[in-house]
Amino acid sequence: MKYIFGGHDVLLSGMNGGESADPPFLGRFLFRCMQICRVDNWDQLKSSKVLVEIQHGKVVAIADITGNNWFNPTAEFEAMGQEKEQRYSSRTS
Fold it and tell me: pTM of the prediction?
């Protein structure tokens, strides 16, 4: 069975959608995947083992094999967006 993790809708930012000041979701996504898998380069991800959380046939989060370090891009990117909004609203108040 083949699953997709991430995808276009999760990674929209800058020139690909959203505002130019939006957080760099693609870079963050790649960094976090490498961090979870404890690898130093992108090629090493191919052979990495992870735990996955699947909802409605899609992988929504991955974790290291111990299950102690989870990455859910949708939740993490929403938190980044809320933090940006809070910073912006505190500057304009």
Answer: 0.67
